[in-house]
Design goal:
Elements: H1 11-15, E1 25-43, E2 46-49, E3 59-69, E4 77-92, E5 106-126, E6 129-148, E7 155-174, E8 180-191, E9 194-207, E10 210-225, E11 228-244
Antiparallel strand pairs: 1-2, 1-3, 1-11, 3-4, 4-5, 5-6, 6-7, 7-8, 8-9, 9-10, 10-11
């Protein structure tokens, strides 16, 4: 398996002046993301279009985030994020064979993608403008299973398994005295033909410890693992509810 190197160095984080939290801060939220797939999957030099050939359905995917911030200088804050994506569909292979399945065959498909992020970040600004910079280690596992409906012995399995380092950037702008804010955050990496990005923009309303958020998220994966390759994009609206302490 080839290893990805991060496209932005850790010096970006360390070079910026840091703003430490005055007190301990802990928060968590759960969100639902109504995402749609596009792109293709390659298995042993044969490709299938996951939207037009496999007709993978849009689905609501679960996402969980928790963070811990502290006033200790130098030590980074910690953010953990888990995303589980599961979609299925029925379609027909295109004009060329895909792996062991003949062209034109009716198929059923299941695509599962799990991601676990560990992010270590610093607060560069912490007032009505909030800016965080850091590094993320992302563990993702992807699996596409395509079954020939006319010959059940023909089953194609494509897997991608990797730990990827990524840059992390988050910005939020608070509207004074309203509890309303707008922001964006994302992870990015690009190296030697492989690239990933995962970005969301949102509006947020916060009252007491309750945090409500809605926005739009886009994730793109272009990654090769031996003979298997994912070149897919997921995008769609999301909503979340969380608590801060």
């Amino acid at each position: 398996m080839r290893k990805l190197m991060i496209a932005v160095g850790g010096s970006l984080v360390m070079a910026a002046p840091l703003a430490n939290a005055d007190i301990l801060g802990v928060g968590a939220n759960v969100s639902y993301w109504d995402s749609a797939f596009s792109g293709e999957v390659v298995n042993k030099d044969s490709a299938v279009d996951i939207e037009n050939d496999l007709n993978l359905d849009s689905d609501s995917n679960a996402n969980f985030t928790a963070y811990f911030e502290h006033p200790v200088p130098v030590l980074p804050n910690v953010r953990v994020n888990y995303t589980s994506i599961s979609q299925s569909g029925s379609g027909e292979i295109g004009l060329e064979d895909f792996d062991v399945i003949d062209a034109g065959a009716p198929v059923s498909s299941d695509l599962d993608l799990d991601q676990l992020d560990a992010t270590f970040y610093y607060e560069v600004l912490d007032n009505w403008v909030n800016l965080d910079l850091g590094l993320t280690a992302r563990k993702f596992d992807g699996e596409l299973i395509v079954r020939d409906q006319t010959n059940t012995a023909n089953v194609s399995k494509t897997t991608v398994d990797a730990v990827v380092p990524m840059g992390y950037l988050a910005a939020r702008f608070d509207l004074p005295f309203t509890g309303v804010s707008v922001g964006a955050d994302g992870n990015f990496v690009s190296y030697s033909g492989d690239s990933l990005h995962d970005v969301n923009v949102y509006g947020q309303f916060e009252i007491a410890m309750l945090q409500l958020r809605a926005g739009y998220r886009e994730m793109a994966i272009d990654y090769e693992d031996d003979d298997d390759q994912l070149d897919v994009e997921l995008s769609g609206p999301f909503a979340s509810v969380g608590f801060t302490f």
